[in-house]
Amino acid sequence: MGIKAVEKLRCPSSVAAAARSGLKLWMLRAVTTVLLWTSVVQFTAVGNTWTWGPRVLKGWPSCRTAREAAAVTTTRLSTPEPVVEKAALPPKRIYQNNGYLMVSCNGGLNQMRAAICDMVAIARSLNVTLIVPELDKTSFWNDPSEFQDIFDVEHFIISLRDEVRILRELPPRVKRRVELGKFYSVPPVSWSDISYYHKKILPAIQKYKVLHLNRTDARLANNGLPLEIQRLRCRVNYSALKFTSQIEVLGRRVIRMLRQNGPFLVIHLRYEMDMLAFSGCTQGCTPKETEELTRMRYAYPWWKEKVINSFVKRKDGLCPLTPEEVAIVLRALDIDKSMQIYIAAGEIYGGKRRMASLTLAYPNVVRKETLLEPSDLMFFQNHSSQMAALDYLVSLESDIFVPTYDGNMAKVVEGHRRYLGFKKTIMLDRKLIVELVDQYTSGSLRWDEFASLIKAVHSNRMGSAATRAAIPDRPKEEDYFYANPQECLQGPNMLQTL
């Protein structure tokens, strides 16, 4: 074999070696490139945050133009990072503590709500430390809810710290005294002015250091109180008493659902079994239902009135309006048939049979149980005060609020809506309504006459500015402070300075 033939045989191995060498070099370059690219990406991210760094990172090509890039750089250099500031807390009020005030509220949600406002005002005036109120668990509703289950307890304490010191519970040393029975418990006199608390209650607190007020409803007068006391009651009611986030979120959800379909009217339809049994009002009830309500009234010994003439009581305007009466009154007031009607109430006694007239006249009748899923209300079941809190929020936001009985919720919501700018609240004149309804249904009054009279009677009962009536020596018959807290309102001759 010649030299040329040998060279031809060796050539393939040289080429293979050279190819292997080239492949290694290519792989090395590829790995190096990947590493460099990764580093560049990381340093670029860092370079976007830091103002210092290699120029190559600053000048890395982007989708921005040079002018846009310069503008961004200038903005970064000139605009400081936003600082999230915490809401400023009111300064603590410094005072010599005269003792500790414990209170046990009684009644339903709004009865307790008003009482809490009164107790804060009393604690402030007496210079004592208030313990977070205990809520009623023994009333008809047997609601086990604690204060913190309904209200934002932290907000309640902090928002009022410039007025009064509030503690979740007694300090350990003082708590031991209470456990040993070294405290004084008393129900204060109803409708008392602040001088009563200074003359009768304060000496007891100074003597025992701990005083327990075991009833709190209607214990502070409507009128004749110092202006600062009245405005503090409003501040507690409309600012410090905030519902828990769980209640607030669900309430806003219901309101959004209603708002999506236009304006809505809320009826506080107080036609539940407990109210009818307590009041003895049986208009439209069957004999069997009347008997059932009577048995219930006798079953509760603290309901003092047992023998009740339903006919007379209704004629005197002392009964909640029936669903049938409500339907005819809404029509007379020209409430549009398509209006959404939200029922703020528990279970209506008589169910669908008693609601038939109202749902026929107004097909868009809803309630929280029909708007929400059962799972949404699962945690609120058997907690009547928390369910009432949802209705309270929806009632506040409604375009029109119509209570059918002047109970605590009707009064407190009326006052809150006045505070929010005299939102339309139709306070029905029940005594006149039942008289006119009976005349119309008997045929002695034509529809146009009936409707005209209903409109005329209620033209000045829409929640507008009005002076609260004061009746000396008869506080129970006065206009209720929480229905018309005029010292806190904004309107003709009313300045709001909370």
Automatic annotation (TrEMBL):
Membrane topology reported for the UniProt record: Single-pass type II membrane protein
GO cellular component: cytoplasm; membrane
GO biological process, one term: fucose metabolic process
An example molecular function term from Gene Ontology annotations: glycosyltransferase activity
Pathway: Glycan metabolism
InterPro entries, per database record: FucosylTrfase_pln, GDP-Fuc_O-FucTrfase
Location, primary (coarse class): membrane
Keywords, comma-separated and alphabetical: Carbohydrate metabolism, Fucose metabolism, Glycoprotein, Glycosyltransferase, Membrane, Signal-anchor, Transferase, Transmembrane, Transmembrane helix
Highest taxon, organism lineage: Eukaryota
Cell compartment(s), UniProt: Membrane
Family named by the database record: Belongs to the glycosyltransferase GT106 family.
Protein name stated in the entry: O-fucosyltransferase family protein
Source species: Zea mays (Maize)
